[in-house]
Design goal:
It is a single chain. The protein is mainly beta. It folds into two domains: about 100 residues, Immunoglobulin-like, CATH 2.60.40.10; about 120 residues, Immunoglobulins (Immunoglobulin-like, Sandwich). The chain is about 10% helix and about 30% strand. It has a four-stranded antiparallel sheet, with no helix packed on it. It has a four-stranded antiparallel sheet with strand order 11-10-13-14, with no helix packed on it. A hairpin with an 8-residue loop joins strand 3 and strand 4. The radius of gyration is 30 Å and the shape is globular. About 5% of the residues have low confidence.
């Protein structure tokens, strides 16, 4: 009996040692590696644009283009139908339809039907209209201001680099600050000097010109133009030119027209100061506080 008990004790001791050795071997197994700092790849974003509109009586075929690499989830298309053939006739009815998910760099067509307006017979023919994709702004996109389309106008083409991933700079990296420092007008040309006044380098972005139809802010009949702004190193300047003839503008000269300029108009560049990117004909931002670029 005593011999049997000692034999069982030896078996338990051996089994315990084997279990401990196996556990230690697994803990130190060179084939099982867990990275200390997993790499998180940045995701591409979508960008929805209304590519074309073909009106056919009570219906309109609307081609929606996701021009960037990120997939776009389901969204909505808002239709604003006007009472007459001009924008001045006023909005008659507004309705929305579903837009399915659109994979990156692909297109889809949706067809709003004017008879869906409460059963009232209506038509697109001869009527002014405005269409807006993602009207409730629920989808984060690379460009946020190009989701509309009107009968006689559409957003300007987006820059070639607007689909690229914009990586936020590390916290320790100095930030840029873009500011319009000089505007010169000569007939049909406008020369805009942009200064990066802080210590970080600024990537390429866009400059928007809102040109009004008359000498007062808000004068009707104006138009918007956009131009590429090159990358600007810390403390450097760049000059961007708007040539009304090159843009095939309806205006032949700037004359006495009121205007507003916005650099980094899509707000894609993270800057030290975010609210000094504008310039108007008769006004500009207040001077920035001294040593603002050195603040953390």
């Amino acid at each position: 009996m005593k011999t049997k008990t000692m034999f069982m004790a030896c078996l338990l001791l051996i089994a315990g040692s084997l279990f401990q050795s196996t556990a230690q071997a697994q803990d130190g197994n060179p084939k099982i590696k867990v990275p200390n700092n997993p790499v998180i790849l940045p995701a591409y974003l979508p960008d929805l644009r209304i590519n074309s509109v073909k009106v056919n009586g009570i219906k309109a075929d609307v081609e929606v283009w996701n021009r960037c690499k990120g997939d776009a989830p389901a969204s909505r298309l808002r239709v604003e139908l006007y009472a007459g053939s001009t924008k001045e006739s006023g909005v008659y009815k507004i309705f929305e339809i579903d837009v399915p998910p659109i994979a990156g760099e692909t297109k889809t067509t949706v067809t709003p039907d004017a008879t869906s307006i409460g059963g009232i017979k209506y038509t697109f023919e001869g009527k002014y209209y405005r269409l807006s994709i993602d009207p409730h702004d629920k989808i984060k996109e690379t460009v946020e201001g190009n989701n509309w389309f009107e009968k006689n106008s559409a957003p300007f083409p987006d820059s070639a680099t607007s689909c690229e991933i914009v990586k936020p700079p590390p916290a320790a990296v100095a930030l840029p600050d873009l500011r319009i420092t000089k505007v010169t007008i000569n007939g049909h040309k406008m020369f805009v000097e942009i200064t990066n006044q802080c210590k970080g380098n600024a990537p390429a972005n866009r400059l928007r010109l809102s040109l009004y139809g008359g000498p007062q802010k808000g004068s009707p009949g104006g138009e918007e133009l956009e131009a590429d702004v090159p990358a600007i190193n810390a403390g450097a300047k760049a000059t961007v030119t708007f040539d009304l003839i090159a843009y095939s503008s309806k205006f032949t000269t700037f004359g006495d027209k009121y205007y507003r300029l916005d650099v980094d108009s899509s707000d894609k560049v993270k800057e030290k100061i975010e609210d000094n990117n504008w310039w108007e004909k008769n006004a500009g931002p207040f001077p920035d506080p001294a040593n603002e670029c050195d603040k953390k």
